[in-house]
């Protein structure tokens, strides 16, 4: 490991995502020994100095900063990892690109297409490696789905459906805004479930099934007012609590998407299903090691949905971990993304999804919100 | 059984539904001995005399007719059971009502709202008992869902979603029209999956969750042309192969519906899920004896989706059958509907869904098709 | 149907099994029109005349008898169907055979091997068609399992495991003996779960996997004393509440069997699993339409347990019923058995399991009980 | 983290278990920041120097040794972690205890009870902290099962059943012995599935349900001869390929255990189920985040097996990881065990299972093997 090249990380934001990203960096060397770089936890940044220091101590960051501009300015940092609320992504990313830093940005890329555009421009102009953490692509079962589709197993696709169901905001007592709750504040988040949850579904969908052409959507805000932790006042809730849309994909298949935080009984149930001419695929995040696969070419009396336990060495990423039958978890998807990012640097290839690709997802999100508002179909303008 | 009053059935149409209805009549006495009437299989009607006689012999009908008007005209028939293609429902039902017959009509009531209106008028004017076979309401697990909702277990409802997925029309070689295939002929069926499959989903949904207010839909016909068995010619396919819509219920909850015959791996997968403030419910037709139930009021560390095997004597209809753990099947839903119809006659109450209620389902179907065509939201005008 | 030959049934006993058998006879003509015989419900027999008449009226038996000997003596009866408690099987069956009647006997054949021997001798001497209702063989998914095994899909078999779990006798308040409870009375039943539940598991196992050679067992009676409904006294419980055994099959595979009525949460959960060199199979009674199948010859990255929904026309018996995706239930296994019995009469072949085969199952049951008592391995003497 | 006390680890063996243990040490500080000690990867030991150095580099061990005695002798090592084949456990553990080292030993403790005795004596005499890696206790769902049982939710227990099914040794081409295959070599392993897999089942079982009193077992070796990688010769296979036993627990419940490496379709399927008077519990390793729970006290029409997704902060260990709905994996059970060991050091309490407790498991294993050999029931002598 001694002869590996250092890749020095500056992490901005230390919430839930700050933890998943940091964990990913720390496991890289143990499980991806072939990589030529090793991550170094150079600096972590947030505003609350005391808690920040505790985080740095716990996770092993060498130093702290309370102003993200200082991180971007540091010469001993190679890559900026952005884990802030969404409303800060653009400013940080643009500054980081201008400073010539690589960028790993938590999703969604930005709050709007317009906000995302200069981010894309900046990384492209600077020519810096960049990626957005749509981590679910790298759950092995999901990557296997991609492989089966690319191998032509499904044939022509007719249907794609996905939903992301949660139930954590049902209580009207829950406030909006503030630590851990900025996702409920429209200014900070840009939208509700659309940017937070559907963005994941859309990214996976376009990766697996190509561009989304047009959409027809509806949104709902079930709880109209909540106390805002910032002001202490009861304020109008600006986010969408639920969002449903159907769409056409460029390949002629029909899409159906739904997300809500009001589906009692589902903690974080991201599911998708694809129906093709010859075969179909299903997956869900609660049972993430399993891929359900139906192959119509199986002999007719023996046909059934196969529950594939994706834990074998010949299945995506699984040669890195344990032995057949032994599951990995949610966090490993981040390890895989970071590993792929590191590999892409060595290969000089982009690490998908890049900012450019993540902006396409942004376009769909925006078309969805516009459609819901205007009660009309909207073209997405996606170029996938 | 000797002192039971006869209720003489005239069945029109002897296809798949003719079999399920006949089976229902024949099992009534064995499993619902408390009923005061007994069905008598007086006459069955269809055009192919030879095959009709074979059917009558197999199932025990006393006589046959090749003209439905003759059945309606017979004095020894009390109730007309309509199992013809959809395009004949109206004419037969109106004539039967005018002849003072009770009517049990296979769903959907008609091809359009306009076609349904005089049917409703006719049965109401004649004051004859009438019902439409939306049989899935009477699957015990579905009836149990209704009971839990009516008991207030779910609290305020946020979401209702249903789909009905099949995969039997994927081959372009399949013709349209003719015996067993009239469901693919728009003239005979009135629509594709909307009237055939979504009508079931809509009926259950409004029964469980109240009226549907407005809808936004899309439809698709994947195979544009098929040989028509009537003409032998390749003709344009008029039906919808797939239909997706979202909607508002009168109670403020959001609905999401999908149906297709292009979902590889699903033979007849009707599923629904309801998310309430306190609890959620799921069901699917492939595992019809199970109701999935999540109750948030369970102690937090022990909470989970309960898989209720609906086979106990205190669960709906199950005291009529075997012992706990032993499943009944699809066909029993028809037995239950016929039993309830017979009871309603004894009680002098309507047997839901009546023609009037089924017309409300028709309104949703029509709004859905109109929405898809016009690419705009449509009010349903439903009065539930 | 007019030209079918009558096969006149005399049913002895009208409890739970009396109902399932009668239902089977009544549905035969509707679903198996190709049969050359039609069952006629000639007479039903039990001791309580009033309730017997009600049963006869409900189900359509032409006459009643209160002494089974009268049934056996009647010239207008062709076949005796025995649904009494186990302790009466032998006497009735022997008399029926001597009277030249066909016999359909509910399982288990008898309480002991010794009791079964003259029954076997009697039917063989009389040359009368005979069968024992081990109905689970004729659940379509189970029959499909047999087909896959016979086709060699599994290869060499290593393991067979089965259990039959119930939970209806956990309360110490439950009495033993009397109507509906004779299964808890050792005199009437001959044993507890061994004869009632494991007998099913053993029959299926030997049918699928060949003879059982030797066994090592344990039994337990958790509730030692219960009120006897006959005497009104608290009496020692003679039956086994639970029984576990392992064994060798003749083919070298290992067997593992368990049954209990103290497994909370399981109403009637009969499950089995077979592990072969190339493939494995699982089934359970609560989800009886599904067969789980794992084929190691599937491409490695796509391998998984297939959940086969056994409702297609090319799967066993399913061409007789509805359309793909629509389940049948528990009761249909009896219809299939009666249909197969009728066919066997037409073909002049035995209808498996015959008395002779059912006696082999009896031998395993007896070896199991002996093993538990003697705490030692026992040879079964089975000749399969 | 600066003020944490170092606990310097010497790892002996670097195979599969060497990796899981090392990973556990490395994640401790990130996820269990409250611990007062921090593990230091001081030295790793194995015979192949080159590969050992690569392992040390990859995982971050400070130094290497090729003789385990050197590790035990080092002053800069506080704890010995034993990951060697089973036949070396005793010698190393005794020496380590004598050197005053803490010991964390991979299971099973030893090959025989006799071999284990001096190990237990040594750690007790030395008074050193000791534990054995029966890691499955610390899968959160399994720990939750323990909690529910300890809370009395199940009431009196009637049944305990467990199996551990694999399918990786079905090919006769697979050799025995050597790297990765010492588990197939009876000299190195001491037994086959009994010590490797059933030992896990037995440990969990006694932890959850108390001591096992007596056993009746059978074993089988399906492939009688395999090439030995050490000698290159075809040699008799000494291990048990499959083992089945039933037993009595001290609390009067019945136990049923099975393990095999010939169950096609199961990679590492450890399952257990417990049936109590009021409630039952099921778990399996392939879906390790789920605990199935049936509570008979639920209202009767709503009763069903609950599928508890054990990913909430109030469920065992889960406050350390992510957010509700996001699964952890197999490896985390080791992190939990190491965390508990560290806590036990701080508290001065034993970390269960200790060598003493693990020896009780050994007694059951030995009684099982003796029972199979002698074809008779065997008392275990367990004192739990």
TrEMBL record, chains A, B, C, D:
Please verify whether the record's keywords include Oxidoreductase.
yes
Could you tell me which residue ranges the GFO/IDH/MocA-like oxidoreductase domain spans?
144-281
Per UniProt, which keywords does this protein have?
Answer: Oxidoreductase
Q: What transmembrane ranges does the database entry give?
A: none
Q: Name one GO molecular function term.
A: nucleotide binding
Domain Gfo/Idh/MocA-like oxidoreductase N-terminal: from-to ranges: 7-133
Top-level taxon of origin: Bacteria
**The keyword Oxidoreductase belongs to this UniProt entry's keyword annotation:** yes
Q: Which InterPro entries match?
A: Gfo/Idh/MocA-like_OxRdtase_N, Gfo/Idh/MocA_oxidrdct_glycsds, GFO_IDH_MocA-like_dom, NAD(P)-bd_dom_sf
Q: What is this protein called?
A: Gfo/Idh/MocA family oxidoreductase
Q: What is the originating organism of this protein?
A: Ulvibacterium marinum
